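Support request from a user on the community tier.

User writes: "When I paste my structure tokens into the form, the page sometimes reloads and wipes my input. The last time it worked, I copied everything first. Here is what I submitted, just in case something in the input itself triggers the reload:"
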């Protein structure tokens, strides 16, 4: 909202020109406020939630999760990749064993009761926390793909991605004074590791990084802090066999960091798991 600027106090009969001169003199006497380095860094960090940068983030994640830059083709994706989390599916790898797939299907059902996936809710509640398919096979994968043809289901996936992963990651990165690359590093980490309380979760990765370097919001060097964060991320990945290939960090995010591309500006060239990718 635009607020009216108050008229300067002046004696009756003072000319408009004199009033303006008095106002200018008053303003000139106000000292200029220079933003702190941390505040300036936070201001620069506004980036990943820009629609074009968000699309880049989704393509980067898809290159690692689906070996494709076409992230919009992943709404219908579903398979058990053998990582102990049951079925992995959708644009962000919602898992039947970690609760986020259950939350998604509940949200989708709330938007349109009687959906093709509603009948799997009891089974999803039962298998939460395990790699079991009990109550889901044989029909769940096919019905997931059928549901992906429904625009409401695609919107539900977008909603849960933003609520659980994208929004929290970007907010925390901005609070730490990180620019677009740092925001993406947080997002990719929370997508893979979740935000639970175990030693390999996003929060633990960040805490380990903070033990080695200060982020810009605390007066630290952004590049040094991001190297510390990525080091902690690699450690967390190596704690689990299914995620022990650290290519999405070593030959992607670390490449952008070494190039000094803290704003994640295209063109971008990287490799993941031996495959080359380019965003012009």
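"...and here is what came back when it finally went through:"
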């Amino acid at each position: 909202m635009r607020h009216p600027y108050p008229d300067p106090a002046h004696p009756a009969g003072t000319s408009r020109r004199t009033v303006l001169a008095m106002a200018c003199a008053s303003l000139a006497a106000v000292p200029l406020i220079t933003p702190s380095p941390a505040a300036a860094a936070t201001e620069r960090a506004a980036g990943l939630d820009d629609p074009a940068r968000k699309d880049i983030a989704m393509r980067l994640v898809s290159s690692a999760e689906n070996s494709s830059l076409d992230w919009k083709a992943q709404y219908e994706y579903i398979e058990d990749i053998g990582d102990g989390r049951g079925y992995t599916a959708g644009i962000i790898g919602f898992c039947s064993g970690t609760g986020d797939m259950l939350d998604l299907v509940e949200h989708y059902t709330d938007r349109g009761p009687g959906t093709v996936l509603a009948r799997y809710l009891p089974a999803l509640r039962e298998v939460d926390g395990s790699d079991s398919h009990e109550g889901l096979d044989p029909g769940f994968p096919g019905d997931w793909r059928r549901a992906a043809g429904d625009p409401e289901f695609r919107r539900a996936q977008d909603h849960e991605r933003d609520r659980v992963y994208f929004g929290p990651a970007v907010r925390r990165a901005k609070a730490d004074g990180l620019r677009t690359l740092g925001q993406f590093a947080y997002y990719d980490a929370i997508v893979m590791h979740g935000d639970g309380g175990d030693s390999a979760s996003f929060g633990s990765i960040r805490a380990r990084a903070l033990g080695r370097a200060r982020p810009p919001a605390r007066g630290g060097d952004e590049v040094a802090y991001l190297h510390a964060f990525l080091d902690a991320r690699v450690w967390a990945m190596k704690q689990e066999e299914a995620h022990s290939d650290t290519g999405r960090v070593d030959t992607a995010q670390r490449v952008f960091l070494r190039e000094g591309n803290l704003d994640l500006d295209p063109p971008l060239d990287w490799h993941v798991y031996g495959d080359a990718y380019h965003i012009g």
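Agent notes: The reload is a front-end session timeout and is unrelated to the input. The chain has two domains: 36-70+165-280, 76-148. Confidence is low (pLDDT under 50) at residues 1-36, 38-46. Escalated to web team.
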